[in-house]
Amino acid sequence: MTENEVAKLNRKVPELMGAIEVSRELGIKRNNLNKIARLPEPCQVLDRGQVWRADVIREFAAERREAMAAKAAKAAEKKAKVAA
What we know:
Blueprint: H1 3-12, E1 16-17, H2 19-26, E2 44-46, E3 49-53, H3 54-83
Antiparallel strand pairs: 1-3, 2-3
């Protein structure tokens, strides 16, 4: 296979993540992966486990971080009102 053929193939195949990579991206332990609400469906299930498109997981992780930050800010605001 030539370098050009390899480059074309790499453009066609999306970056994938297994459970370990997904859990790292989400900042959780692998054992807790199945507890994540609304985790995107894997794009494929293999004998060794599920795989997800990396771009989908990165987008999900960013949205999840934003939601968690907003929730933490709301809780801090509520706590500050109670303390005042």
